[in-house]
Fold this sequence. Notes:
The structure holds two protein chains of two kinds. Chain A is built from ten helices and ten strands.
Amino acid sequence: MALLELRALCKNFGGLAAVNNLTLDVQAGSIISLIGPNGAGKSTVFNLITGIYAPTGGSIVFEHRTLNGMRPDRVTAAGIARTFQNIRLFSFMSVLENVMVGRNARMHASIADSALRTRRATREDREVEHRARELLDFFGLTSYGSEWARNLPYGMQRRLEIARALASDPRLLLLDEPGAGTNPAEKQALMRLVQSVRERGVTVLLIEHDMHLVMGISDAVHVLDYGEQIACGPPDRVRHDPRVIEAYLGKGA
Amino acid sequence: MKRVLPLVIIVALAFVPLLDRNASHISAYADTGGLVLLAFGLNIIVGYTGLLALGFAAFFAIGAYTYAFLASPQFGIHLNFWPMIGVSAAVAGLFGLVLGAPTLRLRGDYLAIVTLGFGEIVPQVLQNLDKWTGGPDGIAGIDQPRLFGFGFGFNPVPYYYLYLAIILVSLWLLNNLRHSRIGRSWMAIREDELAAAHMGINTTTAKLAAFSLGAAFAGVAGVLFAAKLSTVSPSGFDFNTSVMILAALVLGGMGNLPGVITGAVIIGLLNFLILPQATNWVQTLGQQMHIAVLASVDLNQYRFLVYGIILVTVMLFRPEGLIPSATRRAELHAEASSGAPAQADG
C-alpha cells in the first residue's frame, strides 16, 4: 500500500471542476511530481490534502487514515507538511523561531507549563531549539538565525519554508513550486536539496511548473490539465506523451 | 548592562513612596500601575496574537464587579481580598472564552466591531440591572485588603506596592509565555493564520487562550481598582477606558513588553497626574491674574485631544511605537546576526 493514496478525488468550485477524478499513489521514499500549465489544479490538490478545502468527492488516504475534511493542524500532526506557492513565512519572527514554530505539532508543553516555565517546558524548548538549529545548518541558514524572516533574500526564504516544514518530522513533504521566482542556478540547487530531503527519509510530492526541472529527480510524474490527469508515469515516457506536449505547447506543436 | 537596568528600575520604583510623600502622586502612580496591567492583557490579544479587540474595558468591569459583588455590603458577602484576585481573574477569563468562542472565526474589522459591541453592552447591563449592580451609582463600601492585620484603607502606598508586585509577577509570566510554544503560536497566527494552522497549531484554541488570558489580566486590574477606590460604577469602564488602553499599546509598541510598559506609563501619568496637576496650576494662575477663562479651565477634558495628538505624531514618525519589539537580539544568543544582508522582498 502506498504512503498516500488519492482515489477519484474531485473538487468543484460552483460549476468549475478544479480537480476532477484524480487518482494518484505516492510510494514511500519516492519523489513524485505534479506538473501542468497554470490553473491546472495542482495547488488545489495540495489544499485538499492539507485540509484547506474539503473534497467534493473521492478520498485521501494517508498511512491507512482517511484525511477527507481533516483540519490543517491535524493533517500536520498526522505527518504531512507543506510549503506554499507564494511564500508564507512568519515575517516578523526570527528565522530560528520560524523553524521552531514548525515543530509545534510535535510539542506537548501546556500553557501552564509555558507560563510557569516548568522543567518539562524548558527541556522541550531546548530540544526544539536544538533541532531547529540543526535544520538551519542543513539548509545553510545558520548565519541568519536571528534575522527576521522578511529580511532574508528571496531564495533563502524559499529554503526557510522547507526547513520550517521539515521541523514537524513529516513522512510526506508537499512542495508547491519551490523554485518559483528563482534563477536557473538556484533552481538546480533546490532540486539537489529536494533529493537530499528524500535521502533523509522524507517522501516528496512536488508541484512544478517547469517540466524539465523535475524530470531528473522524479520517480514518477503526473500531468494535470484543467483538473484532469492527462498522463502519468516515469519522466521519460511522460515527456514524449503527445497529450502532454499538446497541453504545454498547444495543438500542432 | 542589559541585566542591570531592569534591576535598577525596580529598586528605584520601590523607593518612590519614600521620596515622594505626596499621597495624590502615589495614588496616580498606583493607578498607572493598573493601566500597565490592562495593557499587559490587551497586548496578549492585540500585540501577540494580532486580534483587534476593542471594548477591552468590559473585562476590567467584570473583574471589578466580581469583587464588588463578593466583598461589599451589596449582598452582605465579604470574601477575602487575596483569593478574590484569582477568582476575578478566572471569571473575567471565562467571559473572555464566552465572548471568544463564537466570535473568533471573525477577522479584522468584524472582530473589532463585535468586541466593541461587547464593550458597550457590559457597562449598559451594569447600569440597568440596578437591583444587583446599584445602577449608575454602582456599589460603594467595597472591602479593602488586609495583610497580616494591616488594613490598606485609603492609603495609596500599600496599593502602589501591591501593583508593583503584581506587575513584576506578570512580567515574569508574560516573558515565559512569549518565549514558549504558546507565545510562538500566537505570533505565528498574527503573522499568517493559514500557515500557522499548517504548523500544527490549533488556531482556535490558541486564539481562545489569548482572549481568555488577556481578559484575566483585566480581571486582576479590576479587583485592585475596586479595592483601592472602594467603589465601582459603570462610568469607569466605558469606551474611553478601552481607547486609553489601546492608545498605551500603540504608543509604546505592541508585542514588546518594555514598549507596552512605557506606553502605559506615559498615558497613565498623563491621565492621572499631569493633566490634573496642570489643571491646578492653570486655575491658580487664572485666579491670581483674574482671568476667568483660565480659572475655570479643566484640562482633563482635553485628554482625548492629547491622546490624539500623541497617536498621530507616533503614527507619522514612529509607527512601530516608541520601543518596538526587537525579538531577534533579545531572545537569541547573539552568535549570528552579523553581516546578514538585509534586503527585503518576497
